[in-house]
């Protein structure tokens, strides 16, 4: 396994599989925040303490029982170029915050890229597990096993009253952030999202963009996650999230059925116009590409388009991001050059898929 493997393949192995409700739910993610006892939090620790933490976790992961998850590749963030870090963020393998760390950050990545253990991000340890579709409980089970393995060999900062202690007070307690990434084009087209988001917030959940806090909801893709980590068990937090997500999935499906029934020709026209843009454009920006890819994915899910798979759309959503485009091109590109390269790459990928499937 090498750094190039993580950088050169847009589609992580786990993304190639479909899970429950994959037509709407792209992925499920569990993230556990942990800190080591007797060390300052990353906002206050010294360079020496940061290096000690990396060494301690590295020794624990490399030496002890992580065989069930395969070898975990160790990458020091300091040793990566800015473009390489950006690609890892676009693939959801590290957080934007870890990429921005000036010194002493690191990450352990599994071969399938479904397990990521970030070191010295906002907290000393952040365990992340990713699954396709709605498999949030499965992701929790796996993250908990990794957490237990680590806790056998390191001493966590834990308080009997408050639970796991974290840098940000909103993570104190379980240290759990559970999230699902959903594609909701019909709720956007029918203008229902403006009413749904406040209702979700009232239930202790939050709706964010494609890369989490502070990011934009490109291509009608949203992250829904818990806000409360204190006073509830991990199972209760995840159970509440699953209940809300089931309702959103039902509303999105109902909205899609209504669009097909009442606006069939308009929806079909929108889908194929977007497909035409992607198949023929010579220059396209990130936002427009994401919107067109969202329309085409909706066309696949509603049966208008039959010669493309959802995986192609998943791949292109990542492959057309600025960092990955420049990695693909072999070096930095000016914005207009990225837009030209993005258009060429999309055309090339769609033609390859059409040849493979025999589509028109």
Automatic annotation (TrEMBL):
The gene is mcsB. It catalyses: L-arginyl-[protein] + ATP = N(omega)-phospho-L-arginyl-[protein] + ADP + H(+). A motif (RDXXRA motif of the pArg binding pocket involved in allosteric regulation) lies at residues 338-343. PANTHER family: ARGININE KINASE 1-RELATED, ARGININE OR CREATINE KINASE. Keywords: Allosteric enzyme, ATP-binding, Kinase, Nucleotide-binding, Transferase. The keyword Nucleotide-binding applies. Its EC number is 2.7.14.1. It comes from Siminovitchia thermophila. Gene3D superfamilies: Glutamine synthetase/guanido kinase, catalytic domain. ATP binds at residues 27-31, 126, 177-181, 208-213. Appears to be allosterically activated by the binding of pArg-containing polypeptides to the pArg-binding pocket localized in the C-terminal domain of McsB. Catalyzes the specific phosphorylation of arginine residues in a large number of proteins. Is part of the bacterial stress response system. Protein arginine phosphorylation has a physiologically important role and is involved in the regulation of many critical cellular processes, such as protein homeostasis, motility, competence, and stringent and stress responses, by regulating gene expression and protein activity. One of its GO terms (molecular function) is protein arginine kinase activity. Belongs to the ATP:guanido phosphotransferase family. Residues 24-255 form the Phosphagen kinase C-terminal domain. This is Protein-arginine kinase.
